[in-house]
Amino acid sequence: MKSVANxxxxxxGLIIIFKLTIYISGNTVTKLGGYSNLLSILIxxxxxxxxxxxxxxxxxxxxxxxxxxxxxxVGFAAVLSVLLAIFTYVYxxxxxxxxxxxxxxEANKLGIEQKMxxxxxxxxxxxxxxxxxxxxx
Length: 137
Hints:
With about 140 residues, this protein is mainly alpha-helical. Helices cover about 80% and strands about 0% of the residues. Helix 1 (about 1-25) packs parallel to helix 4 (about 65-95). The longest helix is centred in the middle third of the chain and has 30 residues, at about 65-95.
């Protein structure tokens, strides 16, 4: 199962490079930045299949039962999730500190345009803050 964890780490690395490329190119608040999480799935799906195929062919002699595949898949997801959670914390806490204030400003504009009550706008802002702020800073 060590090889599956290695593939999960490689996948996390590819996603981190992708996210940092979006940030460096200034596309964080564009459609590309908005869809970057969905585009990350295009990295994850093939990598999990490659990891399972590698496990089956190189470690298990060409055969893998459903239980083994499920364990390996959950292990892949667990390692990937932990690594990406750490990256997300570092990213929003230290690297990209401008996106959240920008999003809050846009939420205010949207609320005013839609003639929302102040209470509704505040609730929307609090939701964004809770979702994007690491530990609500």
